[in-house]
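Structure (tokenized):
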């Protein structure tokens, strides 16, 4: 008697971008002056700090598929 089994595992199968490492630290001038000091864009909309508050520095890996087979004899 020979039995076989085949499995397919899929991770992130629809290839939806999953962001990782978001900068969630907001620096302010002082406790009495809550003006943010680490914003990524200035008032004119020009990027001045690539690692500023809310910026994403990486993404998670793309789709991964795993196929496995088993034979029982």
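Design, position by position:
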């Amino acid at each position: 008697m020979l039995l076989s089994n085949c499995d397919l595992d899929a991770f992130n199968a629809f290839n939806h971008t999953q962001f990782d490492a978001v900068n969630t630290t907001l620096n302010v001038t002082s406790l009495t002056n809550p003006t943010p000091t680490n914003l990524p864009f200035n008032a004119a909309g020009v990027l001045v700090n690539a690692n500023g508050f809310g910026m994403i520095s990486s993404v998670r890996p793309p789709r991964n598929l795993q196929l496995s087979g088993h034979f029982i004899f």
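Reviewer-requested clarification: The longest strand covers residues 3-11. The chain has a mean pLDDT of 88.
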